[in-house]
Design brief:
mainly alpha, 2 domains, 3-stranded antiparallel beta sheet, 8 helices, about 75% helix, flat
């Protein structure tokens, strides 16, 4: 075999080997995507089933007060008959009938309470599983890293946005801006973490409530006058986030975030993004 032909055969083998590797990678990717899809469908079915059960239970719980009132009425009626009707046969028959009704009502109440407890346990278990899944996805995204074009990222809810502070410090402090930036962000994160500082008024909005900035708050007023509107608003947004996501602890917490739409990302969106991103990386490597 000539040297040229030998090189051609070796090149063919390399091409076949790369093709086989790509096919195996694609097959593995399809398997992983199918597993992720089934996982998403499982969680969504659990949520739908639980929602139906909770809706049915809510109807029964709406009658709970009525059931409790009926039990009280029967107990009172039994006591009244015991006092007023003497010891005739008819008297004992009335009491027996009422006691049987009372037993049925108590059994119904006990069954209602048991069903409610079971549903609460199911809901707690489903929520625990979803939270564990979210934590896992957050860890994967953190370890993989993100870029400016990433659709789903991990956002630290309650942390200060960098850009307004960097822009201000570069403008005012020139060469020493990095040290001043770290110093100022550290100072204001300590303010944000202080549970005694609450520069908001809570007002009702529809069925919920909204946090309105208290314009008379001295810290925010001084910050805006000294460092500008953008820096001040970054503190306000961080405060709102930390109150919503970790009001008791007052420290930033990681959350799945849809970067393009600037909102919390669903678990489904995050998993599908990871699948697509993983496929792109494998194709790029081959």
């Amino acid at each position: 075999m000539s040297l040229k032909r030998k090189k051609l055969e070796e090149e063919k083998k390399r091409v076949y080997s790369r093709r086989e590797n790509l096919q195996r990678a694609n097959a593995l990717q399809r398997t992983q995507e199918e597993k992720q899809r089934l996982l998403i469908e499982k969680h969504e079915k659990q949520k739908r089933d639980l929602s139906i059960e909770l809706h049915q239970q809510a109807k029964k719980l709406a009658d709970r007060q009525k059931l409790e009132s009926e039990i009280e009425r029967l107990e009172s009626l039994i006591e009244t008959i015991k006092v007023k009707d003497g010891s005739s046969l008819d008297h004992f028959k009335k009491i027996e009938d009422l006691q049987n009704d009372l037993k049925d009502k108590n059994d119904e109440m006990e069954s209602l309470q048991d069903m409610n407890q079971q549903l609460m346990n199911k809901e707690r278990q489903a929520n625990d599983e979803l939270q564990e899944a979210r934590k896992t996805v957050i860890q994967i995204l953190d370890s993989n890293g993100t870029t400016a074009n990433s659709e789903v990222v991990v956002k630290r809810m309650g942390a200060l946005a960098d850009k307004p502070w960097v822009d201000f410090c570069k403008t005012k402090y020139k060469e020493d801006w990095e040290d001043k930036y770290s110093e100022l962000q550290s100072l204001w994160m300590s303010h944000i973490s202080d549970s005694n500082w609450y520069p908001f008024r809570v007002v009702e909005k529809g069925r919920g409530h909204e946090h309105i900035v208290d314009e008379s708050d001295e810290k925010l007023r001084d910050l805006r006058n000294e460092m500008g509107y953008e820096v001040c608003m970054s503190v306000v947004e961080a405060l709102k986030e930390i109150i919503e996501y970790n009001g008791s602890g007052r420290y930033p917490v990681p959350e799945l975030w849809h970067a393009k739409e600037r909102r919390p990302a669903t678990l489904r969106e995050a998993i599908l993004y990871l699948c697509r991103n993983s496929k792109r990386r494998k194709v790029a490597r081959t």
